[in-house]
Amino acid sequence: MSAPYGYDAYPNTHHINYSSHSQDDVKVGFDDLIDEYSRPYAANANHQTFAVTAPAMESRGPDHRRGPSFPLGQKVTIAEGTKAMSDDTHDHSTIGAYPPITTGMKDTQPFWRKLIPESLACRLYLLTVLLETIVDLVIEGELYTRLDLTYSSSAASKKMPVYLSIFAMAHVFQFAMAIDAVYARNTLQFLFLTGFNLALLIYSVIQIAEIRQTILSSDDSDGLINVSVSVLTTIIPIVVAVAELAYILLGWKIYHEFGWKVYKFLGADRRIKKMYANFQIYECLVKFDVFFWAGFSVQFIWLVLSKDDWEYYVTCAALPLSVLLLVEGHLAARHENKWMMATFMSGCVGAMVYFVYKLTKVFMYMDDQFANIWKSLVIFSGGAIILLVFTFAMSIVVMQNFGRGLKDALARRNNTYHVRGVSKSHGRAASLNPNRMSID
């Protein structure tokens, strides 16, 4: 009776050449056998494997055949065609070794492409801020032109260009903060921007009467746009109000999107999440300090001080130094440097003393030196003092969290969020960890 398959179908698997001696001559002792095979994964000439060819597998095609085996020390390069067809291949260099070699991913996207967010809600948010900024800047520029044509020596005519410039600067600042919030995925900054835009809405309503009183011949003034001043001043609060509604709706959507993304790189550790929330609040306070400090300094330099006064040059020098101080506060929290944070907190105390002194001086001379501008100076100096108090308090909280793991979590975010490796097969972000299963 013959076997189902001939012996010719199987290769010769014997790896010992038997001679004509007796069976006892070729027996191997147990100790020798253990010594020889005690290292099964070491390089050994006696260890060989063979691909078995069976007729049943041959009939099903070459895809059902077992591939050749290789020793562990030999690394075989994967074919380029195989790598192109494989979607879950992490090691693009060699196989046969563990763990796989992690290759760094290069971000080949241009800089302008990085500024465009992937989320539709974020794109609509930035588009709304951009449209609001463009429309209001055009109208403010038109009002400034007509104000220049109807120039008078009154105090109201001198202060209106400053107020228009601050309003325009606020829109530019808002657009920059919106881009930063989307790029940094700072959910709390969207809440701050919503409140900031609400303040712009109130300011735009207040300036309607002041602009109409300043530009006496509003309908007869020549300008770039053939529209009356009453219509232009009415359009601004309408645009800001519509944008405010859009910010609330889109901000709610973005809050849920960023909440999941933040959870992915922070994990479920509530301690880290709480520290990150404090860090975000601190960052928002530092950024909005810039606007109130700069706004107060510009008004004080332009409307109050003269070039013959020594305080004029001190204020001009203090403006860039204050911006550098706020940058130092950001770097101190990001890199967890206690000496830089201590310097920043000392600067906050000095700035607080300065603004309290200025606010007291404004109240003392509100009927004389600051008769027509005291309201705006009180708003900016008071806002700066309030922000400084909260900034100083949050700087203490953030400094207490130094060395507790937040710095490492932010470093992981920079490595995974801002380096967007995209797979060509499905267009989604690829995992940077070769031993990790991703559901992105």
- Helix- and strand-based class? mainly alpha
Q: Treating each run of at least 4 consecutive H or I residues as one helix, how many helices?
A: 14
SSE series: HHHHHHHHHHHHHH
Q: Give Rg in angstroms.
A: 36 Å
**Spans of 5+ residues with little confidence (pLDDT < 50)?**
5-9, 78-96, 417-440
Percent helix: 55-70%
Largest sheet: none
Distance between the termini: 60 Å
**% residues in beta strands:** under 5%
What is the arithmetic mean of pLDDT?
A: 73
Number of strands: 0
Shape: globular
InterPro entries: UPF0658_Golgi
Transmembrane segments: 162-183, 190-209, 229-250, 281-304, 339-357, 377-398
Keywords: Membrane, Transmembrane, Transmembrane helix
Notes on the protein architecture:
α8 packs parallel to α10 and α12 packs antiparallel against α13. With 440 residues, this protein is mostly helical. The C terminus is likely disordered. Among the domains are: 149 residues; 125 residues, no CATH class.
What are the key terms here?
single chain; 440 residues; mainly alpha; 14 helices; globular; transmembrane; transmembrane helix; membrane; UPF0658_Golgi
Please describe the topology of this protein:
Layout (H helix, E strand, L loop, with lengths): L22 H4 L3 H8 L17 H4 L21 H6 L25 H5 L4 H30 L5 H30 L2 H28 L14 H38 L3 H35 L5 H26 L2 H27 L9 H27 L5 H11 L24
Helix pairs in contact: 6-7, 6-9, 7-8, 7-10, 8-9, 8-10, 10-11, 10-13, 11-12, 12-13
Short description:
The chain is mostly helical and 440 residues long. Among the domains are: 118-266; 294-418, no CATH class.
